[in-house]
Amino acid sequence: MFSSSIIYTLFYIIVFAGCGSFFVKSTNSRSIFQTLSLCLCTGLSLVAIISTIGYFWGVGLQKVFFIILSLSSLGAGLFLFRSRKEQFESLEYKNYLVPFLAIFVVLLMLLSPIAKGELQFSIFQGNHHDSFNYLESSAVYRNLEISSLAETGQLDVINDGGLLFPAMNLNFRPTVCFVFATFTYINPESFFELHYAYTCSLLIIVFVSLVGLIQTLQSQLSSFVAILLGGLLTTGFWGQYIIDINSWSQVAWAALPIASTQIVTSLASSREESNTWSHQACFTFLFLNLGALYIYPEGASFFFLPLFATFLLVVILRKNYSLIPTLLLLSSCLALFLIPIWESNIKFLLIQKKQATSSIDWWNYFQAFFGGRNGYSDDLLANLGDGLAAFWGAYFFTAPESWGGQINNIVSYAWLVFSVAFLTYSIIRAFRSKNVDGQRMRFDMIILGVLICQTLIFVLMEEYWVAG
Question: pTM of the prediction?
Answer without folding.
Answer: 0.90
